[in-house]
Amino acid sequence: MERRFCQSCGMSLTQEILGTNADGGKNEDYCIYCYKDGKFLQDCTMDEMIEHCAQFVNEVNKGLPQPITKEEYIGQMKMYFPHLKRWRKELTIIDAAPENPALAGVKDLIAKMADTLPITYISSVDEEDFPCTKAMLSPRVREGIKTFYFTTNTFSLRVAHYKTSPKASIYFCDAEGFKGMMLRGTMEVLTDAKSKEMIWRDGDEQYYPGGVTDPNYCVLKFTATDGRFYSDFYPRSFVIE
């Protein structure tokens, strides 16, 4: 059975602790501690919810093989919570030119994975020509299945790699569905005001105190040329025109 989590606090959901709608029926998205009678019980921001949940780190550690600190738990929640329904900001999708009809099924799979999976793995080539991979929050803007925009730190090692060599790949992994999607192409580092404003979101100040003009805030633009996916025990390569 698919495991479900409260889309407000991240708690594992069971039938016994489902919240309730205004009509008294069960709500399938939220727990009873967050949602009752069709309303949220806490009028709070995402960060305030994270601080509230952080006090239960000892309960969380009971189910972990290796205990984590409160600070580590907060860090994990800051990565995870933006993808919960209550806190999620919609992905911007820009209409692109029609794709090759032969790629219709592949296009739908790429779009679904890019829009729903919380993590994307991006790879670069280092100064010794070794591949380097890093987990990133999923793209904030995508144009069809060809172009994807990410936010990152200007002074990061990844940016240094891309400035030296634009060769890159991104990978979406649906572990539960046993599906993987790799796109290969190039990565550009953008620091112009228009690009930065396009993917800026309220709350980003916690990462970039200087706001949208913070010198440590930049945009990664990935442009795909081809890819390969694995689904239902079947691999397939394709070209993106």
Structural class: alpha+beta
Beta-strand share of residues: 25-35%
Largest sheet: 9 strands, mixed
DSSP summary, beta strand count: 13
DSSP helical segment count: 6
Helix percentage:
10-25%
Broad shape: globular
Low-confidence stretches: 95-99
N-C termini distance: 39 Å
- The assembly state of the depicted protein chains is single chain
Order of helices and strands: EEEEHHHEHEEEEHEEHEE
Specify Rg, calculated over alpha carbons. Answer: 20 Å
Overall pLDDT score: 87
Explain what you see:
- This protein is an alpha+beta fold and 241 residues long.
- Helix content is 22%, strand content 34%.
- Strands 5, 6, 7, 8, 9, 10, 11, 12 and 13 form a 9-stranded mixed β-sheet that branches. The protein has a two-stranded antiparallel sheet with strand order 1-2. The chain has a two-stranded antiparallel sheet with strand order 3-4.
- It is globular.
